């Protein structure tokens, strides 16, 4: 494996791609949903988890009902009354996303946030927001996902300048050997950071074939904490529920929580996943059984 992987280059570029996405997101009059609209957000894998975070942020800001769906499980019938569908796709070729766009065409306006603008999703969408500067060569997503979420945070009116500076700091923060060697990780979040917890767990699985789980932080004590033990890590994004750290420490597991912006803390997890992949002799750009885009064959006609 090359010393410098695509994944390493791409995750290191995030402060720059976030700045550009924030600029685009803050522009007025664009195609992204307006305040008060009922919105469904769809994606697959990493993009689905970014949809979860965006939905929690938008509803939390009082800007309208926002439901996140895995594209394969999207409930977009007329009775739900959506004013817009937002699709998030790096490749623009993922079968399930294309099927959603096709199924609502002419019925619900669509806007797709996309990495590669020369792909079928563009023609199938009413509007697009292209982020070609955040597209990636590595199969394992890092910067496209976080850049798309930064775009959406800026569009919601957030000042993301702290997130950008925290991401820069996360790129140089020390990586603890305990994280590289840990047997197991549990990632936790609350509100919008639950999507980040899900994404952190996925990054570890994809890049380094690690045993990882993710839960809402308040659900962790309802069973999942039983997996916590010495040599394992519980990593929290966002606010710490009262007493949770003490409960984890009593198990002997390592409790990890940082004060930086939670999205920037995800950058640190990406670095840990890369380090764990290298320690195991794995190629994070070409993980086992995965491709850059899932393109399914059309079902046979009976």
Can you say what the CATH homologous superfamily of the largest domain is? Answer: Glucose-6-phosphate isomerase like protein, domain 1
Distance between the termini: 46 Å
Secondary structure: number of strands: 9
Secondary-structure-based class equals alpha/beta
The shape is globular
Order of helices and strands: HHEHEEHEHEHHHEHEEHEH
Rg: 19 Å
The total domain count is 2
InterPro entries: GlmS/AgaS_SIS, SIS_dom, SIS_dom_sf
Domain SIS: 29-170
Keywords: Isomerase, Repeat
GO biological process, one term: carbohydrate derivative metabolic process
What features would you describe in this structure?
- Keywords: Isomerase, Repeat.
- GO terms for molecular function: carbohydrate derivative binding; isomerase activity.
- Residues 29-170 form the SIS domain.
- The model has no long low-confidence stretch (mean pLDDT 94).
- The chain has a 5-stranded parallel beta sheet with strand order 2-1-3-4-5, sandwiched between helices.
- It starts with 5 loop residues before the first helix and ends in a 23-residue tail after the last helix.
- 39% of the residues lie in helices and 16% in strands.
- The chain folds into 2 domains: 6-159, Glucose-6-phosphate isomerase like protein, domain 1 (Rossmann fold, 3-Layer(aba) Sandwich); 163-279, Rossmann fold, CATH 3.40.50.10490.
- Helix 3 packs parallel to helix 6, helix 3 packs antiparallel against helix 9 and helix 7 (161-170) packs parallel to helix 11.
- It is built from 11 helices and 9 strands.
- It has 302 residues and is an alpha/beta fold.
- 49% of the residues are buried.
- Strand 8, helix 10 and strand 9 form a beta-alpha-beta unit.
